Amino acid sequence: MATFNTPGPISATVDIILGDIRFNASDRADTVVEVHPIDPSRQLDVEAAADVVVEFADGRLRVSHPRLRTLFTKKYGSVRVLVALPTGSEVQGDTAQGEYLVQGAVGTCRLKTAIGDIRVAQAVDVRLRTTGGKVIVDHVSGEADVKGNGDIRIRRIDGTAQVRNIGGDIRIAQFGGDTVDLNSATGGLSIGIAAGGAVELDARATVGDVRDYLAAAGAPERSDRIVKVRARCHAGDIVVHRAGAGHDAPQRSSRFQGWR
Length: 260
What we know:
By secondary structure, the chain is mostly beta strands. The chain has one helix spanning 43-51; strands at residues 2-5, 11-15, 19-26, 30-37, 53-57, 60-64, 79-86, 90-97, 100-115, 118-130, 135-140, 144-148, 152-157, 161-167, 170-175, 179-186, 189-193, 198-207, 210-212, 226-235, 238-242. It folds into 2 domains: 1-119, no CATH class; 134-255, no CATH class. It has a 21-stranded mixed sheet that branches. It comes from Glycomyces buryatensis. Pfam families: DUF4097.
């Protein structure tokens, strides 16, 4: 375990070969890093944990594995990295295979994994990438840029959003920004528009239905705000509604149920 004096937000980067990463942000004046083998009984995991390097200088934390040119020609162990840091810190992660959990409120959040789920509680901006896993986010107060291959669930976005999914649904419960661009190859789209402002909707589903419930919700309150919604779906339904209206979740076309 490594402990550093950090009276304010820091920038933290975790770059490991294989393993799970957790950032826990809270009101604290220090940063604590723990590295453990995923399986303490597995020698490869124990060695991988011992190889991790922890560095801190000028408000920047880096937790990393030395990059191996032979990564794809030899076995390598998995580790679990836990970083407890001050609220509002910037976090960044990169792993070939592993899951992320971000608890508390962070600033900019950039996470990347080839295989693994990503879960984020609260961030100012997010840039999330996974080619095989779910993405679950509670609240983004700024910009959301998400690409995945699995179900994507975001409870609330206050800024602009661009969300791409290869295979899975995209569901945004409450969108309060001005511009959102959604695209799913195989999976439905559902977005709830926050109260206030008119909506410019550009939605197309190749195989599926577009269900626009905005008119049924009544005219919005007088406002100069215009929300631009662009939604594209190859195999699945698109559902647009006012946030909190509780309309049905999108469905894939029955002809494509076996694609995932």
